[in-house]
UniProtKB/TrEMBL annotation, chain A:
UniProt keyword list: Signal
Record's signal peptide: 1-18
Protein name per UniProt: Branched-chain amino acid transport system substrate-binding protein
UniProt xrefs under Pfam families: Peripla_BP_6 (PF13458)
Similarity annotation: Belongs to the leucine-binding protein family.
SUPFAM superfamilies documented for this protein: Periplasmic binding protein-like I
Domain Leucine-binding protein: 38-380
Taxonomic classification: Bacteria, Bacillati, Actinomycetota, Actinomycetes, Streptosporangiales
Stored InterPro entries: BCAA_transport, Leu-bd, Peripla_BP_I
UniProtKB/TrEMBL annotation, chain B:
Source taxonomy: Bacteria, Bacillati, Actinomycetota, Actinomycetes, Streptosporangiales
A GO biological-process term: amino acid transport
Name recorded for this polypeptide: Branched-chain amino acid transport system permease protein
Membrane topology qualifier: Multi-pass membrane protein
Coiled-coil stretches: none
Organism: Actinomadura coerulea
Principal place of residence: membrane
Entry's family note: Belongs to the binding-protein-dependent transport system permease family. LivHM subfamily.
InterPro entries, sorted: ABC_transp_permease (IPR001851), BCAA_transport_permease (IPR052157)
């Protein structure tokens, strides 16, 4: 009796263990800590807080809700938590927050992370801890280049896409000679380089490029200088972002540079910037966008849901955050586990077709999401039919052209 | 070249207006007002809110906003600064610094970090032919108005009895007290006035600069450099240094853009080596 009892206990324990090792799907047996934790590490009060920030967290929550609705009982787990933290755009804070999120908050994935230097810091932590990181907000190509690693993915856009779209596009449209002004820090310097390469590649030339103070509220010196350069530039390439870009454009209009034959092209611009300036101030300005809420019915439907939750129209970054979270959850679902190495395998080469893109592929070679990008133009006020509808999509850059080829210096 | 110089003066106009208020406040109260940039920002936001929510135009804002914020300044002085003044100067330094952060964050909470739109007043749209070159009307207006305001302040300070008292109390507070001038009576209105000047500069900035919560903190460091270059507490020095720094940074931007950020501070260091109390400061005032 006693013997039988012991073997029965063993059998039960065995069965329990087997259950824990679990079959695929359902039951959540292969989920560490019995739940999935998605951490949005973002800028909660600095210059990127509006284009990602708290609404990026909402976008990720929407992805979780959509995932649960799709799979219901069949979902790999129904315990999915979304947490967030502020990295203040500083690499050292990003580094310590990332460690804290992975170790203490048990995050399975870190998302968003605008600011290139902060993103690279998080990528290093992800690599060391063998945990998933999908960057959305940062522009640097280093994430899929020299500093790429097995656990880091880059989603949405990068500086190559911006330079290639706007630099090549505007040059081919006849804006051969450029005057580039760029903010004097890592982002600006990187943009200046990639734009110069793209412009030259398209048969144009950069007459001059000047670094400007960062942050800066007075660009008049540079704007006055522009028409007098020899040869006269046809395009002013502004690599500033946020408030600096707003300052620059206000002053560009005051000095009537457009009337003097110097067009404006913006290196990086978000719909929030257009809203700040009023669309007339930017009418006709070309830039590269990677998602626009009113581009088609599908985008609009998602943007309406987003607006119902947040009261705002989503930026391209927030849409990409949604997609990144959704694709991560799908990968966990397919693999039946949140074990990093298995999720990476599921993500590599995955096709992405959701509210963000229908042409996406997560490249296995360097973990970059490639997808169609768009050359956009700001509508004049007379064509703006409803709030926040500022953009006209001029052309589509197919996924294969929009992003650079995998960098041979990246080995995963 | 001439155009660049002119351009520098327009930029300098903002420095001068802000430095003027900062200098008067410092001179009289001995308070380094770190919240000055925040009031400049509130000035710009004030005009945005007036236009956006109440349809009040630029011209009225130019009057209403400085008056309202000036009154707020008076209250601030009465409620806090005044009580902290007898203590170590560090208390007021920390107070104004904290206040700047709080104001900035409150605005951020309400309006986000993106800039708010503010159109140029239609009467000042367009450009003026200045003979040698044409220049945007609005910039000319900004320069003219700030020269006028600085001039008016100057006249009041030099030609009136009130001005004489304030000037004496600003530049030699201890001596004035010893001569029987009731410095304390003038402290509150002077503080309010300094804040009103910052708000005025903010309203002027709204149509030509990005209206966002960070606009003040981005500018204030340069303005502190201006005040130091001019000589702490020297009213005339601050205005002169304001325009000078505007000029130097415009020319710096033109010839050596990569250095332009540090140029102001190089200038500051050079001036301090040559005259430790600043261009127009008195050694003992420190």
């Amino acid at each position: 009796m006693r013997v039988l009892g012991r073997s029965a206990a063993l059998a039960t324990a065995g069965a329990l263990l087997a259950g824990c090792a679990g079959g695929p799907g359902g039951g959540g047996g292969k989920i560490s800590d019995e739940k999935l934790v998605l951490a949005v590490l973002t800028d909660q009060s600095g210059v990127y807080a509006d284009l990602s920030g708290k609404n990026a967290v909402e976008a990720v929550k929407m992805a979780v809700a959509d995932f649960k609705a799709k799979y219901g009982d069949k979902a790999v787990t129904d315990k999915i938590e979304v947490i967030s933290a502020d990295h203040q755009n500083k690499p050292e804070i990003a580094n310590s927050k990332a460690q804290e999120l992975y170790d203490r908050k048990k995050a399975d994935l870190i998302l968003d992370v605008p600011t290139s230097s902060a993103a690279l810091a998080v990528a290093t932590v992800a690599k060391n801890k063998k945990k998933l990181f999908i960057d959305v907000g940062a522009a640097t190509t280093e994430l899929e280049g020299k500093q790429c690693n097995k656990y880091t993915f880059h989603y949405g856009y990068n500086s190559y896409m911006l330079a290639h779209g706007t630099g090549t596009g505007v040059t081919k449209d006849g804006g051969k000679n450029w005057y580039i002004v760029y903010p004097d820090y890592a982002f600006g310097q990187d943009m200046q380089k990639t734009f110069t390469t793209a412009i030259k590649g398209a048969g144009g030339s950069v007459v001059k490029s000047d670094p400007t103070p960062f942050p800066n509220d007075n660009f008049s010196t540079f704007l006055l200088k522009a028409p007098g350069l020899k040869p006269k530039p046809q395009v002013l390439g502004a690599m500033q972002a946020g408030g600096d870009l707003v300052n620059l454009v206000k002053q560009y209009n005051e000095y009537k540079l457009r009337d003097k034959g110097v067009k404006l092209a913006a290196g990086l611009m978000f719909i929030t910037d257009i809203h700040s300036l009023g669309s007339d101030a930017l009418a006709g300005t070309r830039f590269t966008d990677f998602w626009y809420w009113n581009a088609n019915a599908g985008n609009r439907a998602w943007a309406d849901k987003f607006k119902a939750k947040t009261g705002a129209r989503p930026t391209a970054v927030q849409a990409a955050d949604y997609s990144a979270a959704l694709q991560y959850l799908e990968a966990v679902q397919r693999g039946g586990t949140d074990k990093s190495d298995d999720v990476v395998k599921q993500l590599e080469g995955a096709k992405v077709n959701d509210a963000f893109t229908s042409t996406g592929t997560i490249r296995a070679e360097d973990h970059l999401l490639t997808h169609d990008a768009y050359v956009a133009e700001v509508k004049p006020k007379s064509e703006v039919k409803e709030p926040w509808d500022y953009e006209k999509i001029v052309s589509t850059i197919p996924a294969a052209e929009a992003f650079q080829q995998p960098d041979p210096s990246c080995s995963l | 070249m001439l155009q660049q110089a002119f351009n520098g003066l327009v930029g300098g106009a903002f420095y001068a207006l802000l430095a003027l208020g900062l200098a008067v406040i410092f001179g009289m109260l001995g308070v380094v007002n770190f919240a000055h940039g925040a009031f400049y920002m509130l000035g710009a936001f004030g005009s945005f809110v007036l236009l956006d929510s109440f349809g009040v135009n630029f011209w009225l804002a130019l009057v209403i906003v400085p008056v309202v914020l000036g009154i707020a300044g008076v209250l601030l002085e009465r409620l806090f600064i005044h009580r902290l003044a007898p203590l170590d100067p560090l208390y007021n330094f920390l107070f104004t610094f904290g206040l700047a952060l709080i104001l900035q964050d409150l605005v951020k909470r309400k309006y986000g970090v993106q800039s708010q739109p503010y159109p140029r007043p239609s009467a000042l749209d367009g450009s003026i032919d200045l003979g040698l070159f044409t220049y945007p009307t609005y910039q000319v207006f900004v320069l003219a108005v700030s020269v006028l305001v600085c001039g008016a302040v100057w006249v009041v300070l030099t030609r009136t009895r009130v001005g004489m008292i304030v000037r004496a109390a600003t530049e030699r507070p201890e001596l004035s007290r010893a001569l029987g001038i009731d410095v304390a009576r003038w402290v509150t209105p002077v503080f309010g006035f300094g804040i009103a000047l910052a708000a005025f500069a903010g309203v002027l900035a709204a149509p030509m600069r990005a209206v966002n919560p960070l606009m003040g903190s981005d500018l204030i460091i340069t303005v502190f450099a201006v005040v130091v270059i001019g000589g702490l507490g020297s009213v005339f020095g601050s205005v002169a240094a304001g325009f000078a720094v505007g000029l130097v940074s415009a020319l710096g931007n033109y010839y050596v853009p990569s250095l332009s950020q540090t140029l102001v501070f190089i200038l500051m260091a050079a001036v301090l080596l040559w005259r430790p109390a600043g261009l127009f400061g008195r050694e003992e005032a420190l």
